[in-house]
Amino acid sequence: MQATAYTYDPDSRSGQVLLDDGTPVPFDAAAFEAGGLRLLRPGQRVRIETEGTGGGRRITLVTLVTM
């Protein structure tokens, strides 16, 4: 699934992405580190993997979109 980086805190290595419908979804340091990224800027397109549904959905991986 793709999303857009919304916020990112380099100290905690966590932040939020916006799904294409505008829904913000938080991610934690474990999800960020799973993607092997060093930095994330607001507005970047990212690929995410999630588990769960609805309010229990959580992001397990954040990485850059590659074509």
Task: Give an overview in words.
The chain has 67 residues and is mainly beta. It is 9% helix and 48% strand. The protein has one helix and five strands, in the order βββαββ. The protein has one helix at 29-34, and strands at residues 2-9, 14-19, 24-27, 45-51, 58-64. It has a five-stranded antiparallel sheet with strand order 3-2-1-4-5. Strand 2 and strand 3 (24-27) form a beta hairpin. The chain is globular, with a radius of gyration of 11 Å. It starts with a strand and ends with a strand.
Structural class: mainly beta
Total beta strand runs: 5
Strands ordered across the widest β-sheet: 3-2-1-4-5
Order of helices and strands: EEEHEE
Low-confidence stretches: none
Name the overall outline: globular
Number of helices: 1
Sheet-strand content, in percent, reads over 45%
**Cα distance spanning the termini:** 13 Å
Mean pLDDT: 94
Helix content: under 10%
Largest sheet: 5 strands, antiparallel
Q: Rg to the nearest angstrom?
A: 11 Å
